[in-house]
Amino acid sequence: MGAWAETAYVGPDMWDLWLTLRGMWFRRGVSLAVLVVAALVVGGAVTGPLFLRAAGESVLHDTLNQALPIGRIVSDRMSSPVKARPLAQVAKASRHKLAALPTLDRLFTPPVSSLQVQAVVGRPGVTGASAVLAYREGVCAHVRMVSGRCAEQPGSVMVSAKTADAVGWRTGQRLLANGRSVRVVGLYAPVDPKGDYWGTHPYFAALSGSGVAGDLGSTVDALFGPRATLLAQPGYVDATGAVDRHLKVAQLRVVDVPAVEKALLDYTDTGLGAARFRSVGVTDTAVGAVLIQATGITDKLVLPVVVVEVQLLVLCWLILFLVVANAAEARGQEVSLAKLRGAPAASTVAFGLLDTLLLVVLAVPIGLALAWAWVTAIAHLQLAPGTPVVLTPASGLAAAGAGAGAAVAAVLAASRTLRRPVLEQWRRATRRVKSRPWLVDGVLVAAVVAGLVVLTRHGAVQAGSTSVLALVVPGLVVLAAALLGSRALPGLCRAAFGSTRRNARLGGFLAVRQLARRPTTLRLALILTVAFGLVAFGIDAWSVARANEHDRAWTEVGAAEVLTVASPATKDLGKIVDRLDHSGRQAAAVAEITDYSRPTPITLLAVQPERFARVAFWRSDFGTAPLPELMRRLTQKVAPPVALSGTALEVRVHVSRLSAEHPPVLVADIAQQGAGLAPVTVGRLRPGDQTLRTSLPCVRGTCRLVGLHLERPGTSFYPIDGRLALTGIRVRAAAGWHDLPADLSLPHGWRPTGAASSVVPPDGGGGLVLVAHVGSVANPGWRVADRPARLPALMTRTAHSAAGPHVGGLANTQLDLDPISVGPALPGAGADAVIVDRGYAIDAAHGYTLATTETVWLAPSAVATFPDQLRKAGVNILAAASAPHQTVLYQRQGPALAILLFLAGAGLGALLAAGGVVLNLHLAGRRRTYELAAMTALGVGRRVLLFSLFLEQALLLVFGIGVGVAAGIGGAMLALPAVPEFADTPTAPPMLYGVHLVSVLGTAAGAVVVLAIVIALSAANLLRGARFAQLREAPA
Amino acid sequence: MTAAVACESVTHVYRDDVGSEVLALDSVDLEVRRGEAVALVGPSGAGKSTLLTMLAGLARPSSGRIRVTDHEVTTMSEGALRRLRARDIGVVLQTPGRNLVPYATASENIIFAQRSGSLSRAQRRAEVTDLLETVGLVEHLHRPARFLSGGQQQRLAVAVALAGRPTLLLADEPTSQLDRHTGDAVVDLMLAAREHRGTTLVVVTHDHHLSDALDAAYTIHDGTLKSGTWLPVAGKEEEA
Prior knowledge:
The complex is a heterodimer of chains A (1036) and B (240). Chain A is an alpha+beta fold. Helices cover 48% and strands 21% of the residues of chain A. Chain A is built from 30 helices and 31 strands. In chain B, the strands form two sheets. Chain B has a six-stranded mixed β-sheet, sandwiched between helices. In chain B, strands 2-1-4-5 form a four-stranded antiparallel β-sheet, with helices on one face. Chain B has eight helices and ten strands. With 240 residues, chain B is α/β, with parallel strands linked by helices. Chain B is globular and about 50 Å long.
């Protein structure tokens, strides 16, 4: 009896639990598998709500961060004369309003107050410039002092270094602002001129400068001073007081949005107390609109996530059912023993079920933690930086629901074992159940066909219901393929019976028979097919979406990075880029202008062809040839430009024929950089030889001779008919007169500007012959053929159909185009664009390109360094657009996240399915080892048995994965064009839906190889466990 | 002395895998008195084990009546059968491992079988020790069943079957996988139970050494048992 003292005696009341725990430990491998699968089922269920919430937070933050500052700011403003103290009034009114809205008080920063007046500022005795004189709370922390100190003393101001450079002000200087004396105590440079701190106040006009289309430029940034400086302004001067509050974007959560939207409505609906404060105030904000936009995007994510989740959960549940069914089978012997011993029914049930239920209960928190870790990882990799992953009641409900689902699976799986009579358990012969599998197959196939018909008929990307169908149809397709395939597998195996019998190879003989006779095989094949079908679809959908996101971002931006710049006055950006990048591979200068004269605005990009070919993004369907080839064709062989560097121009001409009422006047068309076309009268033409001279207006540098034309003196109208030969052109420079070739001897150096004039190519003797034959109105003209008459152009189809061969040029003058390639999209301008040679376009604008936007396109290798080089060259960078950054933003949009979740879920499903196959081999181990031991006893070699085991599992794997991948690819080809990939509908480039076979097949091949290794090891392990001694035991 | 087991015209027909009807038992009449030890002998497939499982209430005959310890098992509910098994019937199966929970210790296996009785904790512990001493396994009190040898497992199986003091012990080929020495020990155990507890023994066996040790042997051939027929074991073997 002493032995009893060594161990606790567990009473009958705890006996079931005690033995259950002992059994769980005894079958710890199986228990662990059940725990893992159940945890993954719970995790899969929880992933949906967790991901949905995190994606919502990400979309919310992205939308807010990408909005203009007004989308993150609430600004209360009030205007009144300085003496009415508008800042004090607006601050009080704003405070009063906010006190009633604690939500806004919590989620918006403390106010930044400001006061500004429009002032005429200048040195005493000098005409001043119009500038903003401003006080802004905390400004000293947001500027870098280039010299001097921050203006904090009454009567002091600080001016921007740019302004000081342009206007000639300096530290210590006294200025007059609206007649009041102020002293410049420092020169500042804003740390982040586009930062939220500055609100929507246009303080930095000089910094922006010219260069952006529509901005005619200003040279004076705001002068900042303390409040006292502003209050010292004349009392009658109009001033604007403002209180800006910034939304704490990082602290805003999705759950806050409804309350914030309501509070904002209340805030903006409540006036700023005009009656009480004698002044009319306004509240400016677009926060509400941005929040509505973000909510709209997030809402679009809900349905796809739910659809994806349901598919994933059904798959996981099936796998769990398979695993727990195997686990229940493993406990069948103990269940029958309990029945044999007459154990109470509850105890028998506990034997068959309690351990699985305990594992399921344990799996709930583990699954929750796994899902949280998984979504946190996804959020870290894919969502907006800092996106929180929050456990919500919905995730708790999902965990509980999944746990309940897992428990149901356990009950269903165990019920057969529990209900099985003892004798059947001993014999391992379950009664056959009549079923109608083909009925299920038929219903499913009909559903697939119906879904496909609807999808192909109404497969619009933007329709929400269609997008759900598009995500459901692939699942249905693979499920149908899985059902049909799994039904066919036993038949295929039976068909192989004969051949395996004939070729006398025992391994194959055994393998096909094992596959054909076991019902588990059918279930495993089905699950593998579904899982890998969804994986194939998921990988292809993800690859397609990634490629389209990349292409759209790069097409819209145009290159790795595109800088909007303002180059120094009188300096050509193209030459600056040429000087900074000798390789020609890092950057390209591109001038851009949009022609708004048509219903469809068309953007003209004037590019440096060779550089552009190396820097810009290009897709083969954009044009009829590779970009370098097209760029070569953009530039044609033309006559060299005729530069005029001097003070006077001389034209020698022989007029052999002239018929006109009065002698016409020869006029030189001269273009000057930044100044446009200037007609310069050279002199009257008379028959015979003559030398005509005129002074040149080229005060700012080199001019260019564009051409010559004849004008009638005065306002008279008469026909002109003449023939004149240009025999020489000279320019007077500092060293005296010198000849200019002026392309006079080139065969195609000059061309007529209209049909009524012509050029006779020079024959080597008498100069360039120009012929005029015009009516009473037109002026005959000839121009240097230094650019093609019609500019070779790359055009998009919409631009071509909308504009034909004409488009507004850089100076909004008409450009005649020669389309050399027409495609669906062009980099940097999307679907409505034209690309021409920058030099030609500038020539066509005669150097007058003020209304254009100058940009520098950068190659990936130049992104880090080239902006600094540009700044050092005096180029002001106004904005930057990054294609990789834009790509990331597209990848964080709702539809892209839904596809990502689909892939992640399918991957998890495939992992579970593959694990299920291996686990099945393991769980079936005892039964199989008995058989193996028996066959070993019969003299079958272990190598043959190993091969048979491996072949059996490998055939199952290859069949399941193969059918699944084929079905997945089929589903992708059918459904992907209807799967939304963006929150909006992109106009360019065309979305490509080709199957990404390398990704799909590579993944499938990788999975097959890994699984083949695992099943080989598992089979070897199984064979090691097959011993003769087992033959003394009953087969399990 | 009343009958512990009484079968009247028990017939059992079942369908095999190909759907053909097989007559497993054909109008079997059998009576085993309380405290009697009888053997059921016959060739493989004769219906011996089928009859045994019906006596244990694990299967019901197609027709006929079976009474076990004054209970009509052919008409009892599953719950009543379960309670009957727990209270009155011990079963020893041919395969040692099948009689035991493999991960439970020797003592735990006995407790597993005795728990449906109304014994106190001390009585249970005493019975466990007593049974293990009886089968010579007291030193293996805490040893999991799967670590015991085949003979030890079968002795333990007898101890488990006797736990709860059943009035009827049904044994299906209890010595077929044991050597003579161990088989004898198992037979001695069962006979000792009959001796000390008055347990009725019904043993299916091919082992004439075992059947010789019992009070009577009944031959079953093609599902037919000649009621009360006593045949020498040697003669039965010749028949088989």
